Amino acid sequence: MNVSNQKFQFASVLFACWFASYLERFLINLALPYIGAEFKIDESGLGLLLSVFFVGYAVIQIPGGWVADKIGTRKTILFAVFMFAIFTAASGLAWSLVALFVIRFLFGIFEGSFPSAAYKAVAEGYAKHERARVQSFMLATNPLSLVVAPLIAVPLIAHTGWRGMFICSSVFGVLAFLLYFFGTRQSHPAPSNVSTASGHHEPPLPFRELIKDSNIWKISVINFGVNILIWGFLSWLPSYMLKVQKLDLAHVGIVSALPGVAGVVGMLSGGWLADKLFAGREKYLLFLSVTLAGLSLFVMLSAPTLPVVVACQLILSFSMKISFIALWAFPLKLIEAKDMGMASGIVNLGSQLAGVASPAVMGFLIVARHGSYDGAFAFLAACTVICAVVTLTLPGKRVTSAHNTGKAELATEKQ
């Protein structure tokens, strides 16, 4: 098999794993009203249920990156995909509210082991000038799964209940595991600690060296803000359309899927823009897309009709996904492949802390305002301002990774 075919095959099976990961994560958003009715909990309790998944996800980010650096990406990915498929099914078997909280926490632990290994695998398998486009292809599974999730969840909930929906949907994780297991035996990238001129293998930089890089932490903070917006919007959109816009379940499924279509376009566009038009100027792409997201939220808060609300949601989803891939263009282009597991774990920690905070904070704001979603969406809009401000502190010129001193140091090149 030639190199281009190997790259394509590997990208395809990794795409399947990302798709299963996002799909099985999104399903609970459509089940929330039914879980709330069965266990008799309000939006604040449901927000905590959403957040506990991200507590587990956040806890494992740095350890998961360390494991990927130590034992390799293939083993880490296979273990993570198999286990999150198991815990998707387990979500439908919860015998009490406490059990459901514990299951969702463990689900977060196992699913959270996947991204750092996947980012590292992309860094191992592709040159730096290819990585943003490849990663945008992978992360297009995020909005794509937003399109597909309602199409799967709504009929399954209608026919089998929310519990049956989780059990049946776990098959996607099982299929992804099998595809990755059989599909990467020949095409998986080689380990990234490549031989140097002296014939030795370079070990990954230790954590204490990576955390000295202020730019890694800036990217993590921006990732936190962007994902406050992403997870807050995605978590509460179905409930908002059901309770505020007064749509029935079938129409909620359709309308909730539309931002996913815009998101796919945004994610793929973002990868091309980051590698081509904004190459070396990724911070400006990030700033513009975050600003557009904030403006669309502001308009949505005062939108008088449903078509305007939906239009704002499409613009918001499009700009969010461009923001996300523009943000990840930084570590993908700055960090050496051998260090990508731990470094991406640090960066991804920001997004998972956002997943913890955003659904819970929005749930409490909705309850505090007696069912109004205005305060919750205003909270999201405020976070876009923070993202935009921190983005302006990032290097404005093309950035490269400089490890000649043995430290994770980011340097700028003159243009």
From TrEMBL:
GO cellular component: membrane
Any one GO molecular function term: transmembrane transporter activity
Coiled coil: none
Keywords, sorted A to Z: Membrane, Transmembrane, Transmembrane helix
Matching InterPro entries: MFS (IPR011701), MFS_dom (IPR020846), MFS_Na/Anion_cotransporter (IPR050382), MFS_trans_sf (IPR036259)
Protein source organism: Caballeronia terrestris
Membrane-related topology note: Multi-pass membrane protein
Domain Major facilitator superfamily (MFS) profile as annotated: residue spans: 10-399
Record flagged with keyword Transmembrane helix: yes
Transmembrane segments: 12-32, 44-64, 76-103, 137-158, 164-182, 216-237, 249-272, 284-302, 308-330, 342-367, 373-394
Stated name of the protein: Major facilitator transporter
Keyword Ligase: no
Subcellular location: Membrane
